Amino acid sequence: MREAITVKNLSYKYPDGTKALENVNMEVQEGERIVIVGPNGAGKTTFMLHLNGTLHGTEGQIEIFGKSVDKMKRAEIVKEVGMVFQDPDDQLFMPTLFDDIAFGPINLGLKEDEVRERVAKAISSLGLSGFEDRAPHHLSFGEKKKASLAAVMAMEPRILVLDEPTANLDPYSRTELIGILNDLNEREGITMVIATHDVNAIPELADRIYALNRTIIETGTPREIFSNGELLEHNKLDVPDVFKLFEVLRCFGFGCEKLPLSLDDAVSGITKVIETEGGHIHLHIHEHTHTEVRKWKDKYGHH
Amino acid sequence: MVNYPEIDRYSALDSPMHRFDPRAKIIAFLILIFAVVLLPDLKLAFIGFIGAVLFLIASKLPLRFALQHIKWVFLFVVPFIVIMPFTVDGTEIFSFYGLTMTYEGLEYGILVAVRAISAVILVLPMIATTRFDITIKALDRLKMPNMLVQMFMFTYRYIFVFVVEFQRTWRAMVARGFKLKTSLYALKTIGKALGMLFVRSYERGDRVYQALRSRGYTGSPRTLVEFQMHASDYIWAILIIGFAVSLYVIPFAGVS
Ligand SMILES: Nc1ncnc2c1ncn2[C@@H]1O[C@H](COP(=O)(O)OP(=O)(O)O)[C@@H](O)[C@H]1O
Ligand SMILES: [Mg+2]
User: Fold this and answer.
1) Can you tell me the distance from the alpha carbon of A73 to that of A67, in angstroms, rounded to the nearest whole number?
2) Chain A residues whose beta carbon lies within 8 Å of the beta carbon of residue B4
3) In a domain, B136, yes or no
4) Would the pTM count as exceeding 0.80?
5) Which residues sit with their C-beta closer than 6 Å to ligand 1?
6) How many domains are contained in chain B?
7) Which of A114, A256, B124, B164 would you label with B63, given CA atoms 20 to 30 Å apart?
8) ipTM (interface predicted TM)
9) Contact A105/B at CB under 8 A
């Protein structure tokens, strides 16, 4: 497996003096799905803008498939790293969806029939058929989000960078988008770097998490990160609802070995417990239950 | 949803003007508009006006929609009709309190009004019968400077975002009890809100540029589009340009 992204000692200061990034290090393997978590203002967006050379670190180095971003030509980086911005209105600027999706491929210098082919493929793979002639202001937010993903996918990048892709989406569109992203990763082996606050989406989207707050605080699998109570507390990070619920169930004596991170996990976890405990689940209230529930509440600051 | 002020709301109708090739349409109507605006004579201006109305009818655009747009120009030209008769020297029609209304003034005021209204009427079959993005592409194919084409494109795209943002700000202000009054306080508040809106637009501009660059933008967005001239396009173009020319030839032919 190859290293898709290597970030070494990256620091960045905005012109007004804000130190947004300090000594950030990251390694991403080809085909990996990386989620970056961190509170507002942690520098997630700033960091991502470095990955395609939009911003250049005041210090440090970024390599994409072994090549230094600073030495790559604009056209070269753009072909490798596709960037989906948080607000689709920032990204869709052409009068129609077709033009917008065609914009990138045209800039890559592709021939007209090839451009049309790419557009058609991106439109159908994101389920946007029939919207070709629509103006962006006549699309719903969810459609705009998919459109901006289609516009980037039409450039066929090997790395996809997404800034808070599920923010502001309704539950249906959110699930749909997560499915689309995982599909792209599975079928085309696209490497993904995703910034998100959406903790419930993380178990489904992340092979590995980087916790960022100006600098990288910790990295690990979702399970490692979500089990690290101290890390979560210090950085005001949240964990998936399912995970919390099973922590509570544990206080009531539910005996699963691994706390589930997703609903699928939960189903197989419950099934396993039922099987080992002879066909049913046993919950109880003992003296210690109340103290444990109280502890649990304190942990997440619920009062 | 938001009610957008869209000039191309009825571009999906079907009429000879809708089927007219956008490039030929723009050129032909631009020539006619210039011809009408420069007409020196009231009778000719009326002929131009009648022609404009006929083209509008040919475009099948709803009358209400057309009037909406014409209304604004009308408000703009009314002062000419009122003021001109009293300020241009010439044959007196009547006078009171030292104000003299002249025949020449009246004629000139009406001339200005008729020319302006005819021009606006002609803009409708020219612009409102094509999707605006196609109009922009047509301008591009007509070799309009790329910088201007881009400006049209970005304006067209972001005016809607801007409208939505303004409405959002406005609703937030009203929701907290703001009332539009002609007080210094109200004006100051609106000033500040507009200021914020401009700052936000500026920041959005930054992000849009970043997004553009992320997709390989180097300065000239290009689009794919196919225009093709058919016989009917030539016929309409000749008809419209011919009408423009005849407005200037008629006087010499001694018709009037
Ligand atoms: N254009 C800018 N100029 C100055 N400071 C900025 C600018 N953009 C972001 N910042 C600051 O940099 C820090 C990181 O911001 P950002 O990368 O947007 O964080 P996140 O995406 O994690 O919310 C914040 O303190 C923010 O205020
Ligand atoms: Mg951000």
Assistant:
1) 11
2) 137
3) no
4) no
5) A 14, 16, 18, 20, 38, 40-46
6) 2
7) B164
8) 0.73
9) no
